[in-house]
Each structure stands twice: as structure tokens, then as C-alpha cells.
């Protein structure tokens, strides 16, 4: 916009000077013969002045155009620098956002894995508890169903498939029978015994 305005200004100055010269020529043509020489001298001076003014106006216009060009170049450099800084800042912000997303994803995966392990452990524990209860019930039923052991006082506990027998029986043979009955039940891994022989009055007789 500035360079266009300076060009118009320069063009107008030239037109004014040309019109002034034409007016002087026309005025010379209408002068008497005695004053034509003076008029010519005036025209020469006017032409010189016009030329000098044109040079000065042209020089000033060139200076203004150069200054405007330098200003535009400077603004363009600043704009380019600002765009590069903005691009770098945006890139850095995106990288930080990506890092935070990665951290959040990693933490979520860790929490999910921990929850999964906890559920598996609890499920296994619950399953073991159910299996132990079933084993205990089966062993008790088998002991009560045995004609040799029905009169004995045997307590049964199970921990992870290991059956523990405690209480009293009337003979050593019945300790062995109780162990055998418990061992024969499904899912029993081992049998431990704390059974003791209790001699009753009837057995003494």
C-alpha cells in the first residue's frame, strides 16, 4: 500500500512540473521580441529547478520505498520467527501431552493388572475354601458311615486339601481305619492325624 501511494505521489509531481513547463513555453510564445531572451532564461532556470525538484522528489520517494521495503522485510522476518516459535511451542506441548497420555495409560494398565491378580487370588482362595469344605463334609460322612468308626469322636478339618483328624477312637486299628477312610475321599492330598486311643469301661471288660 505504501509503495503504491509513493508511486502516485511521484507521478503527480512529474505531471505538475510538466504542466508548469508547458505554461512557461506558451507564455514565451506570447511575449514581445525584446523580452523573449529573458523569458528563455527564465524557462531554462525553471527547467533546471524542475529537474532538480524531480531528482529530489525521486530520491525521497526511493528512500521512502526502500524504508518501506526494509520495514516489510523486518516484519516478515519477525512473523517468520514468531511462527517458528509458535510451532516449536506447539510441538513441545504435544510432546508433553503425549507423555502424560503414556503415563496415564501405563498407570491404568498397572491398576488393571493388579485388579486382575487380586481377583484371581481371591477366586483361588474362594475355590480352595469351597473345596476344603466339600472335602471335610465328605470325610465326616464317610467316618459316620463306617461301622468301625461310627462310635468314635473324630473332628475333621481341611486346609488346601490336607485333612487333619483329631479326637479319640477306641483302638489303634481304628486310627488306621480313619486315616484310610479320609485318604480315599476325592481331592484329598494328604491325611494328618492327632487321634488318640481312649479306653472306655466297656472295652476294659
Write the layout of secondary structure elements.
Blueprint: H1 2-29, H2 36-145, E1 153-159, E2 162-169, H3 172-183, E3 190-197, H4 201-204
Parallel strand pairs: 2-3
Antiparallel strand pairs: 1-2
Helix pairs in contact: 1-2
Question: What can you see in these coordinates?
Answer:
9% of the residues are buried. Strands 1-2-3 form a 3-stranded mixed beta sheet. It has 2 domains: 95 residues; 59 residues, Histidine-containing Protein, Chain: A, CATH 3.30.1340. By secondary structure, the protein is mostly helical. The longest helix has 110 residues.
List keywords for this structure.
205 residues, mainly alpha, 75% helix, 4 helices, Histidine-containing Protein, Chain: A
Summary of the model, kept short:
The chain is built from four helices and three strands; from the N terminus they run H-H-E-E-H-E-H.
| Helix-strand sequence | HHEEHEH
End-to-end separation:
133 Å
| SS field, number of helical segments | 4
Going across the major beta sheet, what is the strand order? 1-2-3
What global shape is seen?
rod-shaped
Number of domains: 2
The residue-averaged pLDDT reads: 75
Biggest beta-sheet profile: 3 strands, mixed
What is the percent of helical residues? over 70%
Spans of at least 5 consecutive residues with low confidence: none
* Alpha-beta classification: mainly alpha
The quaternary structure here is single chain
The fraction of residues assigned to DSSP E strands is 5-15%
Measured on Cα atoms, how large is the radius of gyration? 59 Å
Number of strands: 3
